Amino acid sequence: MATNTASKGPVWDWAAGHGPVTGALSATTGALAVATTGAAVGMPPAWTLAIGTAGAIGHTVTSWRERLAARTIGMRAASWLVGAGWTTWAMASGPLSWAALGSLATFGVGIGAAARSTLLHEEARELETMAAAQRQVAEELSAERRAIAVEWVDRIQRVCGITVRVLAVEQWPTGTGFSIDAELPPGGTTYDRIAKESPRLSADARLPHGCTATAAQGVDQGRVIIEVTTVNVLAEERTYPTDYGPLSLHSGVPWGLRTNADEVRAYLREQCALVVGPTGSGKTNMVHTILAGFARTTDILTWVIDLNAGSAGLPWVRPALGTDGGFVDGVRPGVDWLAASHEEAMAMLDAAVRVAKHRKMAYQDLLSQANTDLLPISDRIPQIMIVIDEGAEILAAADKPSRELAAKILEVVRIARAMGVRTVLTALGATGTVLGNLMIRREAKVRVALTGGETEGMDLAKQFPGSRGLRVDQAPYKGAGFMGTPESPAGLFKSWRILPNQIRDIIAATSDRHPELDATSAKAAGDVYARRWEPGRTAWMRDGLPSTARVEEPPSAPGRTGGLNLSALRNDLPSRAESDEDELARQFRAQIDAQFGTAPEPGTARTDAEQPPTTGGLNLSALRNEDNAARKAALALLLAAGPDGTGASAIARALADEHGTTRQTVVGWLKAWADDGTAVRVGTGTKARYVHRRHAPQPPTDS
Is residue 535 part of a domain? Predict the structure, then answer.
């Protein structure tokens, strides 16, 4: 087999410019070629001299425009003139004589040497020009910094009564302020002397509203860093960044911007978080910002508890849910589990406790190999972040369901740090009631206070103990407030504004990024976790989806005060879609109505003898003494619940195995019992529960 052995020679770059050697070679060979050709054809020698003179003039003009040195201009003009003179002489006396060739070689060497010398001179001249410009900029900056240093030394002396020595002044790249590194005077003076005078320093400097002069610890205890904001960035609305790239728990999750436009990140591997914000301060938006950051990570699973109809987590679930309860085109929700009731929240927290305890036993070998007592969190063993909206209020509530939830939340906070289960709690105010729990104060080291200009219930000294000079009126804008972490002292920050369309975009962009709960933890979480997205458990999340049509219950006929009206379900409405459970319930009720006639036709009247009793318990006369075991069992559960009452979901779960009762059926019973006085409805929305009339509080009577 023959092998191609093409010879390899030097590679020429024909686009490159001439250097000293190639330039001299090009000039001499060109002059020789012109002289030889001109002598052969009888060209007048004066032509070459005229061409050389024109070339010298042209290069002189262009070199002057390029602001080249006089040495370079002279060398280029001399090269043209000398070359033209030799060519003219060679054409007259013969270019191929030894005298002509020798003088041409001498001419080439001279051009090369001169070109090299002028090139080095031009490079040195250019470097000197750049250095001079840099020195000028440095002198201007130094003058500005010196002016700032002198001004603030005088100001600190005037306001704080101490004399500092400024070591450095750094202008922020964003142009919104600067930092001063100063040395404190001897005698045990600490940075607190300056930190507590932050409002007075800001006023003395005539800073704009929303700008502050804050002091923090320096590199050692004898130094202080004073950060001065000169541009109010808190008033501007900053939308959430459109870069939805992957994040990690270990690299921190960005929650907003400092006044110098730097991102402030929350490191939650070992820390819990507490977010406080009154109504209208942007707390809900901040929760969505937190959930957005968690959704972008590759090693965090987010569980959300919101007893206010699940409103905090629903925007992160609904875009992924179809009307049949499955996920749309394989899209996964932005959160891994959502609880909107006390029962579901308790199931979630119980699962979290089981996961934490089981991880302690199951991953002993992994902890030993990693030589650590902190579970190595990764995309294979993700951390569980439980976001509890208004969770601090749950801790302070006095009702029994909230007390049970509070105890379970504190258990998660207490036992699950090392095993990668942490919480983010929100609250409406930074009060002693909210911050009175020692466990929360000790574990929730990442703290946020969104003020919105609200002063009531915003005790910043309680939320950020040890921080000086924090005032609510420094951040009167929605989404603005203070944030402190173990890595960054408490200071002003601005939360991003996140819009609903961005939530949908983030869900789509991060769907394939969410980790799966490791098999060991999933086994410990149990069946309640595995079935969290079953259609029966997510039916309430799908209420109101555009393609879902629901059969509404007709209003009760005028004058009716008791009994369950099943005759309204007789008319089949083909134009309305029904779920499987609704269809079964409709058929069941239609059969009962057809057999026993539990309700009259609309427009018919009953005699007084036919009227059902309005007191004395449940009216079962419509069933003609037939034994409705499921309904009796449901009533027994309602009675056994006592003064705390119960809800439709709890009753349906209790009856599901034995009677196959659906939640919709129980809802109908509870409404009927509330109408005829058997039960009393307490609360609204997802917090509603029913109490048997025997245990219901009696209204006060007039004496």
Answer: yes
